[in-house]
């Protein structure tokens, strides 16, 4: 058994397989998962697990170069918007802002969509993997 890090076997496996430019989507409990994309469903009930708890684990185990978020989050969920931008700035990660429908379209090319129990609006990101060297 792993001692630290991501204990969910599906999520751990997907993170380990990420290559440069691969994307991983982390979403709230309402984000649709496109047909053909692996669903890693972590949602237990509303709010459990919260988006940021899942995000912290993924961020600790992978390196990213770009994060895509929905433009609607700026107005509908300003705390989320601000936190994503702070994280990106601190880690020198590019932020792409698109309409929510475009984010959903982009998730169709992700290696997986991770469903959290988050129920705040627009708590969804598409993370683009970087190399760690």
Low-confidence regions: none
Strand content: 15-25%
Number of domains: 1
Global geometry: globular
Oligomer: single chain
Mean of all residue-level pLDDT scores: 97
Q: What is the CATH homologous superfamily assignment?
A: RbsD-like domain
| Secondary-structure element string | HEEHEHHEHEE
CATH classification class: Alpha Beta
Biggest sheet statistics: 6 strands, mixed
Radius of gyration from CA coordinates: 14 Å
Total helical segments: 5
Helicity level:
25-40%
Query: What is the end-to-end distance?
Result: 27 Å
Return the CATH architecture. Answer: 3-Layer(aba) Sandwich
Number of strands: 6
How would you classify the helix and strand content by structural class? Answer: alpha/beta
CATH topology: RbsD-like fold
- Read across the widest sheet, the strand sequence of neighbours is 2-5-1-6-3-4
